[in-house]
Amino acid sequence: MSLQRLLIMAVMVMGMGSLLPAQGFYQGGSFALGVRNTANLFTEDGSAGIGAGGQFKIGFGPKVNTEWFYDYISSKPADFGFRQDHHIGWSVQFAPFKQGYGDKAFVPYFLGGQCFDLTRLRTQRSNGPLYDSGQIFSAAVQVGVGVSKFIGPRLELTLQGQYMVHLGKDAHFHQDEITGLNEVEVHNETSLAGHLLFTFSANYYLFNLWK
């Protein structure tokens, strides 16, 4: 599914939800399970891909929620190779406006957090030898914005975008200007050239851990 279709579907579903009642099951201690689709846009080498994953959420108050997630994303930046990314992380979502989560209206929020990345890059036999980077472990921090919409008392849809900055290692494709060979570069330092994620998720609140 393309990013454009994913965003259109998200807007349509969330718009339909405005016709249904939502009486705020959400409160401090609310626990939810969810599924997610993520579009990953890389700024360094043009890698872009669509992935899927899951998450659970624990609320800590009317305006504070937390998200603990896993994403698997595959992307093909060009004809010469492909990459696989596993993201495991968490974020805090703060909704400063309106009445907070569970409100009928669309509730905007800010988010910040951290994740661990497991990345593998491979080049194909086009204009150079086959190269396999193996699994590259790195960490990242992320900040972003999103919007939450409750469809009924327990079902929450969210649409969010976040920018992730790598800490430690950063791996990406690179084409040598002299030889024209496609290579993989791994930098062992903090890099601001991270990647941008757009995520659409559906979360169902099952019970309250505390009241």
What can you tell me about this protein's structure?
The protein is mainly β and 211 residues long. Helix content is 7%, strand content 64%. The protein has one helix at 3-17; strands at 30-42, 48-61, 64-78, 81-94, 107-123, 131-132, 136-151, 155-167, 169-175, 182-188, 191-208. The longest helix has 15 residues, at 3-17. The radius of gyration is 19 Å and the shape is elongated.
Helix and strand arrangement:
Blueprint: H1 3-17, E1 30-42, E2 48-61, E3 64-78, E4 81-94, E5 107-123, E6 131-132, E7 136-151, E8 155-167, E9 169-175, E10 182-188, E11 191-208
Antiparallel strand pairs: 1-2, 1-11, 2-3, 3-4, 4-5, 5-6, 5-7, 7-8, 8-11, 9-10
Multimeric status of the protein: single chain
Intertermini distance = 40 Å
Compute the number of structural domains: 1
Could you spell the SSE succession in H and E letters?
Answer: HEEEEEEEEEEE
Summarize, please.
This protein is 7% helix and 64% strand. It has one helix and eleven strands.
Question: What are the salient characteristics of this protein?
Answer:
two-stranded antiparallel sheet; mainly beta; 64% strand; 11 strands; Porin; elongated; 1 helix; 211 residues
